[in-house]
User: What shape does this take?
Amino acid sequence: MNRTTSVATLVLLAGLGMGVTFLVHHTSAARIATEQRLIDSQMLLDMLPAGSYDNQPLDQPLAVDNIALANSTLLGGYLATRSNQPSAVLLRSQTVGYTSTIELLIAIDANGKLLGVKTLKQAETPGLGGRIADWPNAWLHLFTGKSRTDPADTGWALKKDQGQFDQMAGATTTSRAVINAVHDALRYFDEHRQQWIGSSAHE
Assistant: This one.
């Protein structure tokens, strides 16, 4: 085998190797993206009751992007529908806790009632405010069924602040931050209900 043939063979092998590497990477990237999408869907949608939607809510984002509210920031939102009728809204909210920012997912049905609240990210004190990340979470479950007007505005506070909610033991600041963020989200939903839900909701 002469030098020219050897170089040509090496170039060919290198080209084949690059092609195979690209193909494997492209195929793997698509598979990884699909798997990540499934994980995201499971994490974000498990608060919605089974059978309450038949669309892909993550494919129906709301025009909500870094909207500053009184005590929190809305990072994004999604619309769940059933038979092309809005059934719920999912809002991603960020607030400041005791030692970290806390990212919440807040699910609200078409009538403005909370379906649930879930912690997506946090770095609060382990064993205290960090318990906000537990799932299922008994303290966060206290909000299920509440709405913008139930309780009234003054009730959306800790009992020690003359409100209606207990705090997580040893986590006053974290508890207060979450309550305020949920209240913010409910107010924002109420202000945009007609735009998002229209007249399909029934009181």
Observations:
- The radius of gyration is 24 Å.
- The first helix runs from residue 3 to 45.
- The beta strands are 67-68, 73-82, 85-96, 101-109, 114-121.
- The CA atoms of residues 77 and 144 lie 19 Å apart.
